[in-house]
Amino acid sequence: MKKWMCMNCGWIYEQEVGDPEGGIAPGTAWEDIPDDWKCPDCGSLKSEFDMVEI
Amino acid sequence: MTVMPRLEDLEDKSFDPFLVEKLSTGDCPDPYPRIHELRAQGPVVDGSYRKQFTDVPDVQMGHLPQVMVLGYDAVMKVLTQPDIFRNKEAFENNLGRSFGNTITVMDAPIHTRFRKIFQKAFLPQVVAQWGESVVDPVVNRLMSTFIDRGEADLIEEFTHHYPFQVIYAQVELEPSQAPIFHKLAIAQILSSIGAPQGPEASAKLGTFFGGLLVEKRQNPGTDLISHLATVEVDGERLPDDVLISFLRQLMNAGGDTTYRGTSVLLTGLLTHPEQLAAVAADRNLIPQAIDEALRWEGPVTSTFRYAAQDTEIEGMPIRKGTYINTVLASANRDPRKFENPDEFDIFRSRSTRHIAFASGPHLCIGQHLARVEMTRALNAILDRLPNLRLDPDKPAPAIKGHLLRVPEHLWVKFDR
């Protein structure tokens, strides 16, 4: 399975969960997340995420 | 074939560094009533966290200007503003002296560069493969020593050993060298208080790890040291001094915290038998049980940052040059974020993340490995120790310590 993962901390974005505390509603597709959104765990930018095989 | 370097013991073989561990953890039975009182005073309170609980002088930090930052939002502001609240000055005279040029003692931009390389060796998909190959054999070996008895002290006989033995397995340490390794890992902490055994231990561990890196680069495997010795990001490898410093820190940052976290997890479940039964019946509950244990009794209650400029937290001024006791435990038991925060409840809402692993750029780099280890350990215990329960003839487990929390004993019975 492929997921978007923060390369600075390993946090994984789950589309069905989203990031409500960060203003991302559950179900939000990765492409629709704004570029200035930050990793909720370590604060890295969206650009620091890579698609990885889990 | 890998030819392992040998570790040298301290010159003074009678020196006992483990005494310092007792001094640093203390025996405070419950710091949380005091933490709640402090948080009620406001987000910023003058003084040191440690001084709330012990009269033992703090030779490293006691003379420095200090405040405590308390409550979830205030603590998050400290952890997620690394330009203002820095690590270098906070840790260079304690962890920096013990371990060397470790990433804990760095700030951006150099921290950002090296952190990304280290993290690559600790990403979830990397550490997952160590569960079966490294963690399970250690767990099974330790459990085999008591499984036929129908009773055990899960701290003395299990949790106090397994994370360290996982590290020994990762560095392929000869079993006869393990006691020296553990002793040197503890002794190096004494650098920060000026004991000559501290730098001696740091140097001897450095020589050992330096030799190990040479060997692993010649004969790399799938183990942690091979990953770290060869991992690259954008063509850049880790410098040896940074890598050796990281490995020096591994026993404390990776071994000690996992021992404490697992002990607290088992204590929480065994003192709440209905929750233990639920997890035993549905292993999908294990991740939330781990998170609740870490929120409820996080292994590290407070960490430091340094104010690099005049600033404020929720309107409370903090002067440049102040050392910030960032009280993680006050955040994880903040009633504004967690209902009935002093209760252990694996079914509580998870809408607010706990910060036992901290937050921001210095978030625990080994959290995914810790989760793998705790999951493997708990699964093995639930699989192999049927009808697990507290031993009614022994004292109930008591989690102690104002800074680093753990119970000394966890006496259990189970069916054979």
From TrEMBL, chain A:
Q: Which GO terms describe its molecular function?
A: electron transfer activity; iron ion binding
Q: Which PROSITE patterns match?
A: RUBREDOXIN (PS00202), RUBREDOXIN_LIKE (PS50903)
Pathway, per Swiss-Prot/TrEMBL? Hydrocarbon metabolism; alkane degradation
* Keywords tagged on the record: Electron transport, Iron, Metal-binding, Transport
InterPro entries to which the protein is assigned, alphabetical? Rubredoxin, Rubredoxin-like_dom, Rubredoxin_dom, Rubredoxin_ET, Rubredoxin_Fe_BS
Q: How is the cofactor bound?
A: Binds 1 Fe(3+) ion per subunit.
Origin: domain of life: Bacteria
Extract the PANTHER family matched here. Answer: RUBREDOXIN, RUBREDOXIN-1-RELATED
Q: What is this protein called?
A: Rubredoxin
Taking every annotated instance into account, which residue ranges of this chain make up the domain Rubredoxin-like?
A: 1-52
The residues the record assigns to binding Fe cation are: C6, C9, C39, C42
Organism, scientific name: Sphingopyxis panaciterrulae
State the needed cofactors, names only.
Fe(3+)
